[in-house]
Amino acid sequence: MTDKALQRNKRYTAYVDKVSPSTNTIHSLLKAFVIGGVTCVIGEILRNLLGMIPGTDDNQATVYSSVILVTVAILLTGMGLYDKIARHGGAGSFLPITGFANAMSSAAMEFRSEGLITGTAVKMFNVVGPVVVNGIVWSSVSGILVWAVSMLMKL
Amino acid sequence: MTAKSQTIKFHNKPRLIAGMSVVGKKEGEGPLGKYFDETDDDPKMGKSSFEKGESAMFAAAVKGAAKKAGISTFDFEALFAGDLLNQLVSSNYAARDLPVSYYGLYSACSTMTEALALASAMVNAGYYRTAACVTGSHFAAAERQYRYPLEYGCQRPPYAQWTVTGAGCSVISAEGNGPAIISATIGKVADYGIVDANNMGAAMAPAAFETLLAVLDDTEMNLEDFDAIFTGDLGRLGARILRDLCNERGLDLGQKYSDCGEMIFAREQNCYSGGSGAGCSACVLNSFILSKLNRHEYNRVLLLATGALMSPTTSFQGETIPAISHGIILENC
Amino acid sequence: MLLPQTWWGYALDYLIVFVSGGICCVIAQLLIVKTKLTPARILVLFLITGIILQTVGIYTPLAKLLRSGICVPIIGFGATLAKGAAEWAMQYGPLGAFAGGLVQTSFGVGVAVAASYIVSVAFSPKSK
């Protein structure tokens, strides 16, 4: 590309950034805050209720409550309601664990028409793949680091 | 035609004798709803997948157009078709059941005017007597290919666009009644460095602008010579940018100019900046614009369909978005 | 729980959860609106934040105070991964680090995979 074209593009993209309407920041932040906060409170209520069951400690209650959140989010996705909430919630609905479940189940449903084996099973991690892969890689690194540090301490 | 001209003039006046538009529910509820010939509430058209539904919409548009022209699909000598899906599957599968020579075209959302230009050239030259041009797009099928799964919860920026579910078919014939296609201006690819795949209006506006200048240059017409000027699917933002670009050159588009993508959805329909897709300009041309021409409310119309020529792969690789726009002039004469 | 088990203790507890969870989401939303980061990148960013917080030992005291406010957002997922990886590494040596994270998070992920599979059979996506 010539210098002249590059300069023209620079001018044009600067102009486009200026005229492009932006999301109403305060409004969208508020909605993300409320929807994200409510999701966490529901998780907390479940956790406290499950913790009351005899023989369940807080760790188990945490696991079960996130399992329930995940299941409910997947059901809502199936019924076509989750993305309606997410249209308002934005980060408030994709950052909690429910967003992870929604991303996974929506991809599974979307590619169902390409078959259960070649569609659903292959493409299920289409959207959440980065989270799973990065999670495994970096947590392994962290685990090895912790182990190495403890070995050094013993020396 | 000078050596530098981008415009082909059709002296034998190929005519657009009939048009058919088939759209989905949301488009039918929009401001142009009453102009569309057929509105289908079922996005799958009774088939098992959205892709098959899109194909069925194509077939319905072609058959409807033949019926409105008073002929059968056997009378078409050629079909110029295109859509947005990989390998043009919707067009290909619709053409499978049609007994005509088939041209599969891809020019993203500007495929309709490319098809009309080619069909008019063929008819003008006398190779064909009657040809059909059809393009379409489908929201659900396009989302899968270009963006996220349908049920995935994500917010889009306000300048994003909503893919139109619909197909439009025009019948071009050497004789008959209807507006003539007097010239076609084939655009050059324009890339002004836009990277954001959600901001297609901004990527395509310069292409429309360059083609508009070429039309005015080559045909030696002024803006005053047109009753109306339409762009394909720039959306609210793109239309505004085009007006700004024109103002910079001292051209005032004023009331004459509208954008099909902006017209097809009302603001209350939550379609962000407006409609997009190959079906957008095709449906509006074959309903709203054609009926206005036939009623002589318009006598000369310039249609500049616009297309963003990117793919998800190039977007992920951080490439800028090249865009194209082809213009045709329709005239009652 | 850190707070006394009275009605205002519980109320404050839930308020803390609501506000801290909300703030996490507001930060993510700010990143979306102000930068051009995609949701996938933001998720990975928060995930890695969780892993780092757990590795340096800040996460556990934070989670005691904020409870679901930090463990329901994806930060908690990252922290659980890192916690599992560290525990298994200490128990089985460095190879354990590759398994521990998966074991700790297997409840949620396993249920998510199975439920997604079932849902994909039972429901089909709708055009909007």
CATH superfamily (homologous) name of the largest domain in chain B: Stage V sporulation protein AD
CATH topology name of the largest domain in chain B: Peroxisomal Thiolase, Chain A, domain 1
- How many runs of DSSP E, i.e. beta strands of chain B? 14
Whole-number tally of structural domains of chain B: 2
Biggest interface, residues from each chain: A-C, 78 and 78 residues
Largest sheet of chain B: 6 strands, mixed
Q: What is the residue-mean pLDDT of chain B, rounded to a whole number?
A: 94
In terms of per-residue confidence, which ranges of chain B show pLDDT below 50 for 5 or more consecutive residues? Answer: none
Order of helices and strands of chain B: EEHEHEHEHEHEEEHEHEHEHEHE
User: Portion of residues in helices of chain B?
Assistant: 25-40%
Q: Bin the helical content of chain A.
A: over 70%
Number of helices, counting only DSSP H or I runs of 4 residues or more of chain B: 10
Mean pLDDT of chain A: 93
> What oligomeric assembly is this protein in?
heterotrimer
Given the helix and strand composition of chain A, which structural class is it? mainly alpha
Brief rundown of the structure:
The complex is a heterotrimer of chains A (155), B (333) and C (128). Chain A has 155 residues and is mainly alpha-helical.
Notes on the protein architecture:
The complex is a heterotrimer of chains A (155), B (333) and C (128). Chain A is 81% helix and 0% strand. Chain A has helices at residues 3-19, 25-51, 58-78, 82-89, 91-94, 97-110, 116-123, 129-154. In chain B, 60% of the residues are buried. The longest helix of chain B has 20 residues, at 200-219. Chain B has a 6-stranded mixed sheet, sandwiched between helices. In chain B, strands 3-2-8-6-4-5 form a 6-stranded mixed sheet, with helices on both faces. Chain B has a two-stranded parallel ribbon with strand order 7-12. In chain B, helix 2 (50-68) crosses helix 3 and helix 6 (200-219) crosses helix 7 (235-248). Chain B has 2 domains: 8-173, Peroxisomal Thiolase, Chain A, domain 1 (3-Layer(aba) Sandwich); 180-331, Peroxisomal Thiolase, Chain A, domain 1 (3-Layer(aba) Sandwich). Helix content of chain B is 34%, strand content 23%. Chain C is 80% helix and 0% strand. Chain C is globular. The chains are: A mainly alpha (155), B alpha/beta (333), C mainly alpha (128). Chains A and C meet through helix 2, helix 3, helix 5, helix 6 and helix 7 of A and helix 1, helix 2, helix 4, helix 5 and helix 6 of C.
